[in-house]
Design a protein that fits this description.
The protein is an alpha+beta fold. It has seven helices and eleven strands.
Length: 299
């Protein structure tokens, strides 16, 4: 296993706030069905270990240049490709200054005093490949506005596609993200806000497994409603194969780094494992087809 791959898997396993209700490998939650793909991964960003900065995280995800007022460091990711949409959504009572990315995350760094403080939580969503960028953006806005903003969270949204495809991205609302590994990063503040800024106490209910499961269910529901409105004969589920009584194995999520390596014909351990799983799944399908034929002939 290559060094980058080992670090990726290690970091994912260490990520907190990850639901174990689905098939999990590398800290990523996967659910597939025959017609489409579902991904929602939840984790936290904290100062534990190397003392990560949420300013750096926000700058990287938004492909922007931000200065960390606490440390004086400037993080410049403006050369990063593949970021096709960014925006910040706020609760109605949030200060207007929080609409500025640098101000929002510097206030987070300021209010969190502990050296091991949890600074933010992140939701990563796999976006439907059959939808245009405008429609996918509407999906994300609906999901965030319904599930996070009413709780008092501020949401920093960044939609990515595979960076090697970014130069082919069309301008305007007709942009097509089909087959470009579309996904969305949502950075969420970890304290409720009021008109003055961040509250003194965090809400422990935000950490509940039940709430995470509800978010997962809602992300599937929102996508399926959009598929229905668009007349698409496709469907996603937040439930695992086992929960749906489907005799199939889920594959592991490659992520952008390893997906790009595989596109360059560089084999990865995760990719090899997925190929092995796909072979076993194809064998299952063949056995199931043969069983159906045998049953039909016997009637």
């Amino acid at each position: 296993m290559q060094l980058a791959e080992r670090k990726h898997i290690s970091n994912c396993y260490k990520s907190a706030f990850t639901c174990c209700h689905q098939h999990i490998e590398g800290g990523v939650i996967i659910s597939n069905n025959i017609t489409s793909f579902y991904l929602m991964c939840a984790k936290t960003i904290s100062r534990c270990g190397k003392g990560r900065s949420v300013i750096e995280s926000a700058a990287y995800r938004s492909a922007s240049k931000l200065q960390d007022n606490r440390t004086g460091k400037t993080y410049d990711f403006t050369r990063k490709r593949g970021v096709v949409h960014t925006e910040i959504l706020l609760p109605e009572n949030a200060p207007a200054r929080f609409a500025d990315r640098k101000t929002l995350w510097n206030e987070v760094e300021f209010v969190e005093k502990r050296k091991d403080s949890r600074l933010a939580r992140e939701i990563v969503l796999g976006l439907p490949r059959k939808l245009l960028l405008k429609t996918s953006t509407e999906l994300v806005r609906e999901f965030v506005s319904k599930n996070f903003i009413p709780l008092g969270m501020c949401a920093d949204i960044a939609i990515h596609i595979g960076h090697n495809k970014a130069e082919h991205q069309m301008e305007g609302n007709s942009a097509d993200i089909n087959l470009h590994n579309p996904h969305c990063h949502i950075l969420l503040t970890d304290r409720p806000v009021d008109q003055h800024g961040f509250c003194s106490k965090k809400n422990p209910k935000w950490n509940s497994k039940e709430l995470l499961l509800e978010w997962r269910k809602e992300w599937a529901n929102i996508q399926n409603k959009m598929f229905l409105r668009k007349g698409l004969k496709t469907h996603v589920s937040h439930l695992s194969y086992k929960e749906r009584n489907i005799d199939m194995e889920p594959t592991m999520h490659l992520g952008s780094v390893f997906a790009e390596m595989e596109r360059r014909n560089i084999r990865t351990k995760i990719g090899d494992r997925n190929r092995t799983i796909e072979v076993r799944n194809n064998e299952r399908k063949m056995r199931q087809r043969e069983q159906r034929r045998s049953y039909s002939r016997s009637r």
